[in-house]
Amino acid sequence: MTAQVTETEAPDTVRVDLGERSYDILIGRGLLAEAGERLKALLPGSRAAIITDENLAKTHLEALQASLDEAGVKHVTFKVPAGESTKRFSMFERLCDDVLAAKLERGDAVVALGGGVVGDLAGFVAASVRRGMNFIQVPTSLLAQVDSSVGGKTGINSRHGKNLIGAFHQPRLVLADTALLDTLSPREFRAGYAEVAKYGLIDDADFFAWLEENHEGIFSGGAEREHAVATSCRAKARIVAEDEFETGARALLNLGHTFGHALEAAVDYNGERLVHGEGVAIGMRLAHDFSVSLGLCAEDDARRVEAHLQKVGLPTHMSDIPGQLPPTETLLDIIAQDKKVTKGALTFILTRGIGRSFVERNVERESVLAFLEKEMN
Ligand SMILES: O=C(O)C(=O)C[C@@H](O)[C@H](O)[C@H](O)COP(=O)(O)O
Hints:
Blueprint: E1 12-16, E2 23-28, H1 35-42, E3 48-53, H2 54-59, H3 61-71, E4 75-80, H4 89-101, E5 109-114, H5 116-128, E6 134-139, H6 142-148, E7 153-158, E8 161-168, E9 173-177, H7 186-203, H8 205-220, H9 223-242, H10 257-266, H11 276-293, H12 299-311, H13 328-335, E10 346-351, E11 357-363, H14 365-376
Parallel strand pairs: 2-9, 3-4, 3-5, 5-6, 6-9
Antiparallel strand pairs: 1-2, 7-8, 10-11
The chain binds the ligand O=C(O)C(=O)C[C@@H](O)[C@H](O)[C@H](O)COP(=O)(O)O.
Ligand LNCXM5UN binds next to helix 6.
C-alpha cells in the first residue's frame, strides 16, 4: 500500500483478532494525513461520511478532508456539538437522517473524527443505518485512542443511565495519530490517562509500576506516550478478542465504571462538573476502597492507587466533584440500571490488589449503600 505522507515512522500495529471482524489499530505520529490512502486501500471505491464535533472541525477536520481529497475518496461532513450531552437520541436520529439524505450506501464508511463521544455516537449510526455500514475510527483524544475507539462498543446515553442504548459494531480500522494528542487540554489529557492506568490496575501490576515511574514522559509527549498508547491498545485488544460481547472477562474493562457512570449520570453529563475519565478515576479509587472494606484488598494498594491518580491531577473522591450530588439511594438506583446487572444482582469489578481485578456478580445492595454513605460523610 502506498501512503501519501510518510514523514512518519512505520506505525505500531495492534491487531484485534476477531475472525472475519478482525482489524488493525495503527498508532503513530502523522497518521491523519494517511487516512485517505488507507481508507481507499481498505474499501476501494467507497465514500465517507465524516462525523466530528464543532471543536475538532476547527482543528483537525481540514487535514482529514484534504487527505480524503488527495486519495480521491468522496466525502460529506456532519458536525455535532462537543460534549457528553451530544450522545443522545435526537442527535443520533439527526445523524442517521443526514447519512441517508446523503445517499450513502451500506458499503460506504462512517468515519468518526473525535473523542469518545463522537466515536460512540458515530459508531452507533454506522451500526444502525442500512443495518450496518463500514466504520472507521480516527480517535483524537487520549481516552479514545487507548479505549473507546477499540472494541466496537457504540451507543448513546439515556435519561436512565450512561450508554444504555447501543450496539456492538467493530470498526474496520483505527487510526490513532498520536500527534493529535499534543493539542489536548491538560484536563482532557488527564481524563484519558485514567483509562491508561486502568489497564495496569486490571491485570498488569508491572505496567502500573511503570506508569508510576514514567507518567511525566507520557504527559510531556516523550516516547513513553506511544508506549503507553500501544500497551493500552494491546491490553484491550487481548481482552476484546477473548470476549467480544462481554459475556465474561470483558467486564474487567469496566473497572471504575460502575461508580463512574453513576456519577456522570448524577451530574446529568455536565462536562464542566465531571468528564468520563474523571468519573473513572474516582470510580477506580472507590472500587479499590470498596474492595478494602470487603476484606479483599490490602489498604496499602488502595492508597497507592489514590496517590498515583492524585499525582497526575485526577479527582479521586466524590467531594472533588463541584456542586451537590444526589443522595446515596439515588446513586444506587442509577447503579441498578447498569448493563452488568444480572437477574437484579449488582455486578462490580473488585480487586485483590493492584493488577488483580475480578468480576463479582452478586454484590449486596446494602454493602454498596453502607460504603457510599461512609464515603459521602
Ligand atoms: O470496552 C469495554 O468493554 C469497556 O468497558 C471500556 C470502557 O472503558 C468504556 O468506557 C465503555 O464504553 C464502557 O462500556 P459500558 O458497557 O460500561 O457502557
